[in-house]
Structure to design on (577 residues):
């Protein structure tokens, strides 16, 4: 048995499946008898008597050679069907069907559903008796008296699925949203379409809302996000913008499949969203498009001006500068500060929102953009980011930049580089509360750049540098890593090396992270400023991250030598209280 599915009419729902047969020797099918038991609580009893079963010939057996199974099926008992099927002895010209080792559909069975959420328990019955009625012939038109009994008849296992409940057998495990990826979900009982008998699209996929941290599921995706829907496979766009969900995107987590009859199932494991790229909706008379934006301004970049609250407070100003320069240092983004060069013109602004309530934390990044430069009838217009307006809430802030955030305060540095991530066109993700682009932050929590975030940043860089638009006056942003040695960046620069060192400056622990798992041993040697060796450390084969305890070191400057494949690189690090 196989090809289980559910269908409906105006008044009833049906459970349908095929009976399939194969013959390793390749004989022509002549005759069989099958008996099928079923769960009478799920389907009712005496299916034939109550007109709740319909049996039709398989597509390869739909000729006058074979009898009508629906006219011959009986209630063997009130929970067992008896189904004889084979050659019609009254047919003068016979043309039997050849069986092979590949199973063919002999019968299609449709049963009216009585009650959902019960096991169907459909199985072959009396299998020690029914093989006596299994016959084949040598040629398609052999006489009925020449039928030969099969030497051996094997029966497959039955069907024990819960009636009506969708079943997920596979889904795309990892995606990035907003870049054109799709999510495939395979299984059964999804329904052949999304619309109920009233024409309402009741079938939905409900993903985690990437803007919410409280396990909230979206109620639906946009119609355009549903790319394909069948009873056994669904494909949806991995979107970072759902208009009915306050423009939120799909987040990491389990998801729910809801078929058009309202039956649901939740995935057993998480869908993982590595990173999210912000999309912008464009509505046209004939289509609604979700598109990502282009970073522009060539070498001039995005120039940030600060409000007076930041400019007049040396600590706020220093941390704000550091956040911008760290983004520049680690991604090559052309994020600049207005007063670094008096010839620059500000196109972006960072300020404190003094109208926020006392319990408001974090910030908000507004995007100023242009929709222009018509491309073609399919992609329509391009989107260009003209600048950013970042408003930070001033409540209960810590201005630490190395991970020593007070337990009752919020890290201004972490929240600002989060907002700069939005400026860089990154959206929220729910992978871990420690991720920089996670939609919330806790008291005392310190966040900084992470591998997932940098994968998203690299995607933005690649997309921007592709420069695949025409008829425009805008030039794409040029990315160029600067010398990070003078920025006291939380991460050491990875553009030239195959490793990270963070935090720097450090207090009690330092971490060295390789860009990929090491295939050979990697040696790290710590020296004082006079060149005296203090300690050495080893990355074992396959190891990627090595935490180093340095709590016993005195304050001061040290050198860390990292030797990868006989290539030695030395970096200056600083120990502070």
């Amino acid at each position: 048995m196989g090809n289980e599915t559910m269908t409906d009419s105006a008044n009833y729902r049906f459970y349908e499946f095929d009976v399939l047969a194969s013959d390793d020797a390749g004989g022509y099918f002549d005759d069989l008898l099958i008996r099928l038991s079923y769960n009478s609580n799920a389907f009712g009893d005496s299916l034939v008597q109550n007109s709740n079963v319909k049996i039709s010939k398989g597509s390869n057996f739909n000729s006058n050679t074979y009898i009508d199974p629906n006219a011959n099926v009986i209630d063997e008992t009130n929970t067992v069907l008896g189904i004889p099927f084979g050659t019609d002895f009254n047919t003068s010209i016979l043309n039997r069907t050849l069986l092979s080792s590949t199973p063919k559909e002999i019968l299609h069975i449709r049963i009216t559903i009585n009650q959902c959420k019960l096991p169907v328990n459909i199985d072959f019955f009396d299998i020690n008796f029914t093989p006596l009625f299994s016959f084949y012939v040598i040629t398609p038109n052999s006489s009925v008296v020449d039928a030969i009994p099969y030497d051996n008849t094997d029966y497959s296992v039955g069907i024990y699925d819960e009636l009506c409940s969708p079943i997920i057998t596979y889904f795309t495990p990892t995606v990035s949203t907003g870049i054109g990826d799709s999510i495939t979900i395979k299984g059964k009982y999804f329904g052949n379409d999304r619309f109920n008998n009233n024409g309402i699209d009741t079938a939905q996929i409900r993903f985690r809302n990437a803007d919410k941290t409280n396990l909230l599921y979206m109620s639906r995706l946009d119609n355009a996000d549903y790319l394909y829907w069948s009873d056994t496979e669904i494909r949806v766009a991995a979107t970072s913008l759902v208009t009915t969900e306050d423009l939120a995107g799909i987040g990491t987590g389990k998801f729910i499949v809801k078929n058009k009859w309202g039956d649901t199932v939740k995935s057993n494991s998480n869908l993982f969203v590595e990173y999210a790229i912000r999309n912008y909706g464009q509505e046209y008379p004939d289509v609604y498009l979700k598109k990502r934006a282009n970073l522009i301004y060539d070498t001039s970049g995005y120039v940030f001006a600060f409000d007076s609250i930041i400019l007049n407070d040396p600590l706020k100003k220093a941390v704000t500068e550091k956040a911008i320069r760290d983004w520049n240092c680690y991604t090559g983004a052309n994020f600049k500060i207005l007063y670094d060069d008096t010839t620059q013109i500000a196109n972006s602004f960072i300020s404190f929102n003094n109208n926020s309530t006392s319990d408001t934390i974090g910030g908000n990044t507004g995007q100023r953009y242009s929709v222009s430069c018509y491309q073609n009838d399919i992609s329509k217009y391009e989107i260009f980011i003209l600048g950013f307006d970042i408003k930070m809430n001033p409540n209960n802030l810590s201005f630490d930049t190395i991970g020593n955030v007070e337990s009752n305060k919020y890290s201004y540095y972490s929240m600002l580089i989060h907002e700069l991530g939005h400026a860089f066109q990154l959206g929220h993700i729910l992978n871990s509360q420690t991720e920089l682009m996670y939609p919330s932050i806790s008291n005392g929590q310190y966040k900084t750049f992470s591998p997932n975030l940098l994968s998203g940043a690299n995607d933005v860089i690649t997309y921007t540098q592709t420069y695949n638009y025409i008829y425009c006056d805008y030039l794409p942003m040029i990315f160029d890593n600067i010398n990070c040695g003078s920025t006291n960046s939380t991460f050491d620069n990875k553009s030239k090396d195959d490793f990270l060192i963070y935090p720097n400056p450090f207090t009690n622990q330092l971490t060295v992270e390789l860009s990929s798992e090491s295939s050979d041993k990697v040696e790290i040697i710590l020296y004082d400023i006079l060149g005296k060796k203090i300690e050495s450390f080893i990355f074992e084969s396959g190891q990627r991250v090595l935490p180093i305890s340095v709590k016993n070191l005195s304050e001061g400057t040290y050198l860390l030598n990292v030797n990868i494949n006989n290539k030695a690189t030395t970096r200056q690090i600083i120990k502070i209280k």
Summary: The radius of gyration is 33 Å. The longest helix spans residues 314-331. Helices lie at 40-43, 69-72, 308-311, 314-331, 412-423, 451-466.
